[in-house]
Structures are given as C-alpha cells and as structure tokens.
Specification:
490 residues; alpha+beta; Fic-like fold; six-stranded mixed sheet; 18 helices; 51% helix
C-alpha cells in the first residue's frame, strides 16, 4: 500500500492510495475538483480534453494501473501508441482495456528479465534483443493493428544497427537474444532472428530477407532507404508539373563558352571559392593558375573545362553503371589539383554539412543505383535536371566538390536535350540552398521546384555572344550581390 501520492498532480490513480490520500480524493470528488477519466483514474485539469490529458500521462497511468507490466512487442520499439492508439504490454493476464481513445492490450507472459530496462513509473520495457524476438512471433491482427512490426520493418531496423554500429553490435544483439530465447522458450523466434542477421552479415542465404534495403545490404550494395523515399517524393512532385521548354539560346560556340565561364564562376563562388571576376577570367583565358591560389584556380579551370565542352555536357547516363562512370570521370577532372580530395573516387568516410548527415559512404553506390531507377521514370529534361541536382547533392558521394558536381550533372541534362542551361548567381544562393534543405529535412519538394523554375527562367534570358554585354546584364540583375536584402532581378 502506498503511503503517499502526488495528490495535487494533473492525474490521480486511485488504485493503491494510502487511506489518507483516498479520503482526500473522496473530498475532492464531492467538491467537484476532479473529473473521472477512467475507472480509478481522475484529473484535476478541467480545461483540457480528457483525451489530451491521458495522452500526456499515458505511461504514468499505465505504470500505476499495471505496476510491473512490460512495454513489449512493437511498443518496445515505438515508445508510443501505434496507429489507432494501440499499446501492447506483457502482464500477468490477457485483457483489452479502453482508456479514452487508447486501447491497451495486456498480453499474458513472462514479466521483466534482468536485461529489460526500467521505464516510467512502475513499467519496464523489453530490451532490444527481447523486443526483436517478440516481434518475430506469429501474430494475428487485432482489428487494424498487429502487436508485431512487419518482417520488413524488423529487417530494416537490424540493417540500421549494422549500418550505424557495425557487425560487432549485430553479433552482440544475437548473442543476447540467444540467451533470452532459451529462458523464455522462444527458440523458433530466435531461429528467425538468426537467419536475418546471418543474411545481413552474408554468412547465411539472403533469400530469407524481404526488405529491399536489407537485401541490398546482404548482396553487398546497401542503399539509404530514407533518401530513396525523398527521391520518390520529388519524382511525384515533378511528374505533377508542366514545364515550359526553353531552347538553348547560345547560337555559337563562343556564346556557349561565355555562358560556361559565368556558370563556372558562380558555381565555385557558391562553394566559397571566391575570385574577383577579372582574376577568374584571366585564369580561364590564359589557362594559368594564380601562383598564390593554385588549387582554387584549378577548381575554376576544372569546372569551366567540363561545362564549356558541349560534347561532354551532352552525355547523360543510360544506365546506373554509366551514371557512376560519368560522375567519377567528371570528378577526376574537376578536382585534379586537390589530391587529398581523392579525385574520381567515392568517399571512404562520412561527410556532413551543419546538421545534415549525407548518405553513409557504404551506401553511396547502392543509393545512386536506386536513384537512377527513379530518374529513369522522368521524361521532361528540366524534371530530370532538377532530380539529378538533388540526388547528387543529397548523396554527396565525394569528399569534396559535390555541389559543383550536382550542378554540372543538372546542366548536362539540359544541354543533352537542347535546352537552356541554368546559372545559380550569388544573389540566389540562399533561395537555392533553402529549396534543397526543405526537401532534405522536411520532405517538401515544392520550394526547390519553384526556385529552380525561377532561376531557369532568368538563365534563359542570358545572351552570351558578347562577354561584356552578358556581364553588364548580370550586374543589372544583381547577380553578383551577396547581401540578403538583394533579390534577383530580370
């Protein structure tokens, strides 16, 4: 019997109150100071809805009502109600209980082991190894929900363990599960778990796997399933748009080269390789780096060498293997002066920008291959260009030069289709990066598509027959400005 309780808290559970607290609760009920939420459960909050109150205090209430119960099965992974408000607890008996809009499934079974974790109030939660065994039980749906995650979800979780913490973590999990399975008579479930882990580690047949990402991992080419989901979101948005055609306005090779100079200049400026315009032009026209900035000069030269070559920029991938070859060949040219950046080689360690962690280095090839499948479903050259821009930026396959590569690959799609290329001027940098972030972090493709449509329209007006005329027009449009208050003018 409890000797005290937080009688003045938002939720009061009458079960097990001391006599003094039980009397206090009775007085509060008579005075109308509490509202009944469920049998033996009351609240002092008269302003919020009962459902919201229960939602905030759900695990506290369950710990008071079913002390010693184990948050188990899918709930041990999700730590929240499943769709429809379902929570699964292993307890001393089986029963289904309604608590406002929530359904509590009590499942008779062994209570906490020493490996299981303390949770809120009187609850415990299944340790990871036990939770995997529980979720590999044969399970029937209770209405619209099952107590177990799907086999595919289990495989994807195990694949993430391997991706994040390596083989040793997966082997340790398996060893713990083996011990628990013996004590809980869950040998069949352990055999299923052992087969999945073995397949992921390539020590057992991969045919048992159902998850696409787990299958890819098992055959040695894993991919980032979250990024592939973003690719599909962008695909759907692009296919729902109608894009105008802007035929290439560069009527001569000289005009194409002039456009390519500014394309290279702005693309490097975005990445922090900043030159005075006249210095950059001197570097390109003389093909001679500035002595004091050899590597930076080669960045401009490498970019301009690729984007000014109409033949090279007319090459687009027709297969995933060709996509990888094109990327590596262009990167080798782009980064030729930066040996430490491993020109032409995919990254061998993970990279990030601020809070954004890019695709794991072990998943670069697989993610590019899955991305190519999505890219192949696009028809309009501008849609393919935007997709290529985002895919390369999001994967970040190289140690350095990823932003420039993404814009090179974008404009190759447009050149190959006889469409006007796109320049991202300094003044548009925030709009451009903001669009990429909205899709990457919030799964919102609309900002990126709108911003790229706008800068494409701007770029289609640029005439490059005369270098000085083109430069003057860019200046009038604020293209070289860096102040956040300046905007791109047409």
């Amino acid at each position: 019997m409890k000797t005290s309780t937080r009688i003045n808290q938002e939720v009061i559970v009458a079960a097990g109150l001391s006599r003094a607290d039980a009397r206090r609760l009775a007085i509060m009920k008579k005075q109308g100071l509490v509202i009944k939420l469920a049998p033996t459960v009351y609240t002092t909050n008269k302003n919020d809805t009962p459902d919201n109150i229960v939602a905030r205090n759900l695990f506290y209430i369950l710990g008071e009502l079913y002390s010693g119960a184990l948050l188990s099965h899918r709930s041990a992974f999700e730590y929240k109600p499943a769709d429809g408000g379902h929570i699964f607890l292993t307890y001393r008996y089986t029963k289904k209980v309604r608590l406002q809009s929530f359904t509590i499934h009590l499942i008779e079974g062994p209570l906490a082991l020493e490996e299981d974790y303390p949770f809120m109030g009187g609850l415990r939660v299944s340790c990871q190894a036990r939770a995997y065994l529980e979720n590999l039980q044969n399970a029937y749906r209770r209405g619209s929900v099952s107590k177990c995650l799907t086999r595919e979800e289990i495989e994807e979780r195990l694949e993430r363990v391997l991706q994040t913490n390596g083989e040793s973590a997966l082997n340790e999990l398996r060893d713990t599960a083996r011990s628990i399975a013996e004590r809980l008579d869950m040998r069949t479930e352990f055999e299923r778990l052992d087969a999945i882990i073995g397949a992921l580690l390539s020590t057992k047949p991969a045919g048992v796997l159902t998850s696409a990402s787990a299958q890819a991992r098992a055959i040695g080419e894993p991919f980032d399933s979250n990024r592939v989901n973003l690719f599909n979101i962008l695909l759907a948005a692009l296919n729902n748009c109608e894009f105008e055609n802007f035929p290439e306005p560069y009527t001569s090779d000289a005009a194409y080269r002039n456009f390519a100079f500014f394309e290279s200049y702005f693309s490097n400026y975005i990445e922090g390789t900043e030159f005075e315009l006249d210095d950059a032009r001197q570097i390109v026209e003389t093909q001679t780096p500035l002595p004091s900035r050899n590597a930076d000069s080669h960045d401009v030269l490498g970019t301009c060498y690729i984007v000014s070559n109409r033949k090279e920029m007319s090459i687009v991938p027709s297969s995933a293997d060709q996509l990888i070859d094109i990327l590596q060949n262009r990167h080798q040219i782009l980064m030729s002066a930066r040996v430490n950046s491993a020109p032409g080689l995919f990254k061998m360690q993970n990279n990030r920008a601020g809070e954004t962690h890019f695709v794991d280095y072990t998943q670069v090839r697989g993610t590019l291959r899955k991305g190519f499948e999505v890219y192949s479903a696009l028809r309009h050259p501008f849609a393919r260009a935007v997709f290529m821009l985002f895919m390369i930026s999001e994967v970040h396959p190289f140690n350095d030069g990823n932003g420039r590569m993404s814009r090179i690959m974008m404009n190759a799609e447009l050149t190959a289709a006889g469409q006007s290329k796109v320049i991202i001027p300094n003044v548009f940098r925030a709009d451009y990066l903001g669009g990429l972030r909205q899709l990457s972090r919030r799964s919102n493709p609309d900002v990126l598509i709108r911003s790229m449509m706008r800068v494409r329209l701007f770029s289609s007006h640029l005439q490059g027959e005369d270098f000085n005329v083109m430069r003057d027009y860019l200046e009038q449009c604020n293209a070289f400005k860096n102040d956040d208050e300046d905007v791109l003018r047409f």
